[in-house]
Amino acid sequence: MGAMFRSEEMALCQLFIQPEAAYTSVSELGEAGTVQFRDLNEEVNAFQRKFVNEVRRCDEMERKLRYIEVEVHKDGVHIPSVREPPRAPNPREIIDLEAHLEKTENEILELSHNAVNLKQNYLELTELKHVLEKTEAFFAAQEEIGMDSLTKSLIPDESGQPQQAAAHGRLGFVAGVVQRERVPAFERMLWRISRGNVFLRRAELDKPLEDPKTGNEIYKTVFVAFFQGEQLKSRIKKVCTGFHASLYPCPPSNTERQDMVKGVRTRLADLDMVLNQTRDHRQRVLLSVAKELPSWLIMVRKMKAIYHTLNLFNMDVTKKCLIGECWVPTADLPNVQKALADGSNACGSAIPSFLNCIETEEEPPTFNRTNRFTRGFQNLIDAYGVASYRECNPALYTTITFPFLFAVMFGDFGHGCIMAFFGAWMVMKEVSLSAKKSTNEIWNIFFAGRYIILLMGCFSMYTGLVYNDLFSKSMNIFGSSWTVPYDQQTLETYGALTLDPKDAYLGEPYFIGIDPVWQTADNKIIFLNSYKMKLSIIFGVTHMIFGVCMSVVNYNFFKRRYSIILEFLPQIVFLCLLFLYMVFMMFYKWIAYSCTHDTPVAYSQDCAPSVLILFINMMLFSSTEPNKDCNEFMFEAQGTLQLVFVLIALCCIPVMLLGKPLYILCTKNNKKNSKPEQASNGSVNQGIEMQEQTDISESATPAPAKAEKSGGGDHEEEPFSEIMIHQAIHTIEYVLSTISHTASYLRLWALSLAHAELSEVLWNMVLTFGLKDHGYIGSIKLYVAFAFWALFTLAILVMMEGLSAFLHTLRLHWVEFMTKFYAGLGYIFQPFCFKTILEQEENKDD
């Protein structure tokens, strides 16, 4: 956890690698995943780089693997997962892998092509069989009707010619199949081109046919079109071609049709046997390929990543050494040197590769080392902005403050249990759940924040215990501290009675949290409003003071100690003298004023002044006339003390406005009068001068060496007028934000009250419906009411209210807390890591 206090120290290194050892060395660095390479060939076109041909070879192999994977999925073959990802193949193994992939692709292509041809023949024979069978039904129906003009024209006489053919000309027909959805348009077109002189008979096929190329099911219809004349025949054939209808020969004689059907069925049986054998052979080939396919994909992707990285390297003048630059965490420098040595030994290079750290003024990337627990909280901070280099990291404190502030708004023991159990289930099953690699984005968001959900549930259980709230009901565990002083007759006569603390309070407070007697009180909301509103102000002021104090850590680390006096001190004094003093008045009011018999009248509950009114009068330099026997202030000399506090707070504003600009101006003049020294390059191991997030001109300029120069830092080249304008904006923003941010923390009170009231309404409106009746009817009503109550509880109170409290907590950290000390102007450290590259490729494929 200590490593999260600030980002790790980075070093800019040069790598000198022999060309024969470059591939294996980069492979070892990819397995380690500790370096981020820089592009030394930014001006070189991507197609003109040294290893562009190798990248193209990898792209071609990846294309072949994608084709093989599609064919494997098409046949429903299971692809086993890889337990241990293989390493990148050696350069000698690449040729063998490329040849093997070429052979496998050609074999699958040949099998697919043969299968398509066989399926096409099978489809044509199947359509021909249906045409012969359906046309048999057409001609049989005509014969049953009688010897009409159509059948007479098809029955030959003694001379062998149709009877009507001799007198009226031959009546021919065309038979085939067409897709079912094209039949209406097909009929209309035939009617139009023949002017109604075509007689069309059709019959739909009961079972769908398989498309040989796509494997999809297609529904077709058998048709027979009768016509007269060769010219009309050619028109009909053109229409059939336009509608992609398949025409098949159909003899007019019944005997010939029967013989043809028998021959077609025999050929179909033979072809079906050949198809089965082809399918079995293809299945065996794909099964053997599927076992190696994941390993091949990983190896090819690693090869491609290695050559892409090598394209970032530069060749020295002698062209005998590759030079690369990379950012490396200083703690991982021994691992990088070991990876380079292993890479050189793997290829048998006689000249070892070596690493050299260089100095630079460029801002290094930000790298916060995380684990499974802290990764979710770090992602919340990075979503706002990546921390500047070596800046204090808010994620360390967010691990506690985030779930706590969430629980203040979501405080319910029952709802907290539901959330905690859900988070604990994801944590305990995280290995099996992460292995499933779900594509559901909502589930992935929940699973990524499983530890956050677990802590939010646990903290909500604690605050629910403090609020004494369990599904809008109180728990009387330790017994109430209130007693009822009225007799039974008085209780039965009056509906509402007042419990005077002088007589009804026993003097011993409830062991933890709120006394359960408040659940039955008519003024429960009034009491909880005051209680939770004061708590929200106390937590808010404490949170903001902590944020301002964290700026001291940044000022001291980046050697801007003048900002501690000129910025931090006036800010913290301004905040404490006004708002921390208001928190003090809340505690003093709780302690000083009482309702016991021996309490003086001036310090009784009736004379307790309003903290809000006192604060407003303090800021406006006004007063309010107290009641008789009461005091305006809580203690003596409070009015004078408040006047002093306001005057000191107002004096802090000119210090915040003018202190830093005047100091920078004086420093700049002293440097002009003194002899300028030769500037030297700074080291990446030194700190970067940093300013608050609002100070764009300071924090945006990465200058590690400037932290050791004058106190003015990167303002030396900025005009004094610009410095004054920026400082005025920052001062006005801070002064106004202390008021707005304090009021913003009232959302802790508002959402907590809304959650409690909504939970109570849901209990009284839904679940109580099943508790009114007894017997069988009551049990049935309770069963139904509980189902609706549980559904609404999960959907509204846990999901929707939980999401609302989460977003408000996020805003309190991003705006009210982090802006006090966090700049967030850095860029993330993205190391060359095979594991990350493979995960990105898998997500892209999904």
Describe this structure in words.
- This protein has 846 residues and is α+β, with helices and mostly antiparallel strands.
- Among the domains are: 11-109 and 280-358, no CATH class; 126-275, Alpha-Beta Plaits (2-Layer Sandwich).
- Helix content is 59%, strand content 7%.
- It contains 26 helices and eleven strands.
- Strands 1, 2, 9, 10 and 11 form a five-stranded antiparallel β-sheet that branches. A four-stranded antiparallel β-sheet has the order 4-7-3-8, with helices on both faces. A two-stranded antiparallel sheet has the order 5-6.
- The longest helix has 57 residues, at 254-310.
- The radius of gyration is 42 Å and the shape is flat.
- Residues 145-169 and 676-713 have low confidence and may be disordered.
Secondary structure elements and their pairing?
Elements: E1 10-17, H1 19-32, E2 36-38, H2 52-74, H3 91-145, H4 149-154, H5 163-168, E3 171-179, H6 183-194, E4 199-204, E5 209-210, E6 217-218, E7 220-228, H7 230-242, E8 246-248, H8 254-310, E9 314-315, E10 322-329, H9 333-347, E11 354-358, H10 375-384, H11 395-409, H12 413-428, H13 430-436, H14 441-448, H15 450-467, H16 488-493, H17 501-504, H18 524-557, H19 562-592, H20 611-620, H21 638-673, H22 696-699, H23 720-744, H24 747-765, H25 775-817, H26 834-845
Antiparallel strand pairs: 1-10, 1-11, 2-10, 3-7, 3-8, 4-7, 5-6, 9-10
Give a summary of the structure in a few sentences:
The chain is an alpha+beta fold. Helices cover 59% and strands 7% of the residues.
